[in-house]
Amino acid sequence: MSNIIRHDPLDELFRGFFVRPMDLNAGNAPATAPSIRMDVKEQENAYVVHAELPGVKKEDIHVTVDGNQVSISAEVRQENEEKEGERILRSERYFGKVFRSFQLAQDIDDSQAVAKFNDGVLELTLPKRAATSSKRLAVQ
């Protein structure tokens, strides 16, 4: 038995032409809005957080500590322009705010907390608050 294969030259010519979307995000432009990637490590007396914030200025970063809740927010500005001679072939921009919030197992001593920003990485040293002893109230 022989197999019959239908050959359509136009099908080969246009195959995938309308199916494949153009990749407008080629190069260094973000495919989606940037997010904060981070590592949280627990030490004996503190938590250490490393949060990646590439391209963000130090003055655009805000950190809030409330008990065991930590919030990091930043204003992000990314611009990507590709030129060929004096003609601009592509110009992309992203302006927005990124936000990340998480809870730790223990309350933080916010008076001793330290934040450093160097080479696009925010480092937070968050000392654990000393456990307070519970007080039993006498019922009268």
Would you mind describing this structure in some detail?
The protein is mostly beta strands. The chain has one domain (9-127): Immunoglobulin-like. Helices cover 4% and strands 46% of the residues. It contains one helix and seven strands. Strand 4 (69-84) and strand 5 (87-103) form a beta hairpin.
Topology:
Layout: H1 9-14, E1 37-42, E2 46-52, E3 61-66, E4 69-84, E5 87-103, E6 114-118, E7 121-127
Antiparallel strand pairs: 1-2, 2-7, 3-4, 4-5, 6-7
Summarize the model shown.
This protein is mostly beta strands and 140 residues long. The protein is 4% helix and 46% strand. The protein is built from one helix and seven strands, in the order αβββββββ.
Q: Percentage of helical residues?
A: under 10%
Secondary-structure element series: HEEEEEEE
Low-confidence stretches: 17-31
CATH topology annotation = Immunoglobulin-like
Instruction: Assign the CATH architecture.
Output: Sandwich
